Amino acid sequence: MTAVQGQVKARTLGELLQTPEYAGRTPFDGQVRTVQDEVRENLTRKLRNGEELFPGVVGYDETVIPQLTNALLARQNFILLGLRGQAKSRILRAITGLLDEYVPVIDGVDMPDDPLNPIGAEGRHLLEVHGLELPIRWLPRQDRYVEKLATPDVTVADLIGDVDPIKAARLGTSLGDTRSMHFGLLPRANRGIFAVNELADLAPKVQVALFNILQEGDVQIKGYPIRLELDVMLVFSANPEDYTARGKIVTPLKDRIGSEIRTHYPSDVRLGMDITAQEAVRAEGVTVPDFIAELIEEIAFQAREDGRVDKMSGVSQRLPISLMEVASANAERRSLISGDTPVVRVSDVYAGLPAITGKLELEYEGELKGADVVARDVIRKAAGAVYARRYASFDTRALEKWFEDGNVFRFPQSGDASAAMRSTKAVPGLTEIAAQVAGSGDDAVRASAAEFVLEGLYGRKKLSRAEETYAAPEPEVRQQRGGRWN
User: Fold this and answer.
1) Which backbone phi and psi does 116 adopt, to 5 degrees?
2) Taking the domain 15-262, which CATH number applies?
3) Which label site among 9, 218, 342, 466 has the fewest CB atoms less than 10 Å from its CB?
4) Burial 411-430 (b: 16+ CB within 10 A, else e)
5) How far apart are CA 455 and CA 452, in angstroms?
């Protein structure tokens, strides 16, 4: 016996048959516990115990997860259909948590094979030769997940395998013997989960081979019929634009995918904020006020609704995650220079424009204006939306009147926060409103709040903005509002 993470594990088939789980079993007894059975049993146990099924997957509790659970309980293969940045790959990888911690496989073979009921010619041969002395090893659950990103150049040999003439000559077998094969990814995923990302990008003949080896257990490789009755759970992901418009998934394969599960972006800003907070990597000590975190998330929501952004491509959840990271880094850089407390401000969000522009696929109108202009406009709309949602009841008439009288205010971008807060006293009511928004006596947080208030009023078209300077609205905006200051 050998120890695996504190557990004593059998090293031979004879030792395995002495364990309580395998007592009474015999080789080739036909008692096969498939991967789908294994996942179903562990899922059932977790449901009964009230355990979390897919840690780290946020926002799908009422939609995707119930449908996914049903598919797994029904022992079905499935496809996740959704735009980019909707946690499809994360969900597929999370299913490994429903596998057993370890399973025994025959040692010394390329394809993981059941010691009691091997399906490969090499495994069957070793069992006949060694009998109860058949060496086995224990395969951890993380090694039982194989993932392939589909691209048009993927071949049948990549997924299924190819004939190896040198191996055939060394073993003295014919080229049609499975022992002469160099196995591809799918056979190496035997007794595990095989995931294909962006399924629609696979060539039709590869999709047919994939379907045939799973459903019929056979495939032709270079004219030689190869038979492999694999025990694999097959899971897919695809983009709905590719899946429906281009129609690249062959009909027999589509027909045999058990469930089609639609993913989606977060349904509200708070869920999005939870995802971003979970995924974004920030330096310790950098503070992100709640109103700034909401602004960053709202930018993604506004971009998804903007007519200049391509709806079919979507706006990935990676946008607010990347923006949060870059904005936090800019706040850290500013603090290293000034020695001030690192608190994220609106100006740091603007410094994160590269994290926005690279993730927007623009329509013709957006291309004419340019990604930078569109991104700045989206930030403005997002600031106005968050301000209206949170602080629309604040009385800002005195502040607006001060700007209407021709005054201009430049929010300090350098120096410490205390100096920035002293400068805000020039704008009637701004210091007091910022204190209410901040909910904190820390000058760095209040400075962030003050800049957010000005940006929010700009987003609601009550002020104008040029770089770092705030002023009265443009004349045409003032005329549209009837000259009234609310």
Assistant:
1) -90, -30
2) 3.40.50.300
3) 466
4) bbeeebbeebbebbeebbbb
5) 5
Coil vs helix vs strand at 233: strand
Total Cβ atoms within 10 A of residue 227: 12
- Cβ atoms of residues 438 and 469 within 8 Å: no
Amino acid at 240: P
Tell me how crowded residue 374 is: count the other CB atoms within 10 A of its CB: 23
Give the C-alpha distances (Å, rounded to integers) separating 411 from 14, 304, 421, 455: 77, 30, 9, 11
**Which residues of the chain register pLDDT less than 50?**
1-6, 244-247, 483-486
Q: What does the alpha-carbon distance between residue 317 and residue 345 come to, in Å, rounded to a whole number? A: 21
Cβ pair 450, 434 in contact under 8 A: yes
* CA pair distance 351, 436, nearest whole angstrom: 26
Are 372 and 355 a contacting pair, CB within 8 Å?
no
Q: Answer whether 78's CB lies under 8 Å from 259's CB.
A: yes
User: Which residues, 6+ apart, have CB-to-CB distance to 237 below 8 Å?
Assistant: 79, 80, 81, 82, 88, 89, 92, 195, 196, 197, 198, 199
Question: How far apart, in whole angstroms, are the C-alpha atoms of residue 381 and residue 464?
Answer: 13
Residues 6+ apart with CB under 8 A from 370: none
Tell me: the pLDDT tens digits for 146-198? 999 988 889 888 888 887 777 777 777 766 667 777 888 988 999 999 999 99
Q: Does residue 300 contact residue 272 with C-beta atoms inside 8 Å?
A: yes
Which residue ranges does the chain devote to CATH 3.40.50.300? 15-262
Q: What would the two tokens of residue 262 be? A: 């639609």
Whether 77 contacts 21, CB under 8 Å:
no
**What would the pLDDT profile of 276-317 be if each residue is shown by its tens digit?**
999 999 888 999 999 999 999 999 999 999 999 988 888 999
Q: Any idea of the CA torsion for 125, 126, 129, 134, to the nearest 10 degrees?
A: -150
Alpha helices for 339-429 (secondary structure H): 346-351, 353-357, 364-369, 371-391, 397-404, 417-424
How far apart CA 94 and CA 52 sit, in angstroms, is 11
Q: What is the pLDDT of residue 364?
A: 86
Distance CA 83, CA 263 (A): 8
Helix H or strand E encompassing 102: strand 102-106
DSSP assigned state of 317: T
Q: Which helix (H) or strand (E) holds 315?
A: none
CA 298, 300, 306, 312 torsion-angle sign: negative
The token pair at 235 is 């899971």
Please choose, from the candidates 296, 360, 371, 374, the residue with its C-alpha nearest in 3D space to the C-alpha of residue 328.
296
Coil, strand or helix at 410? strand
Phi, psi torsion values for 128, nearest 5 degrees:
-65, -35
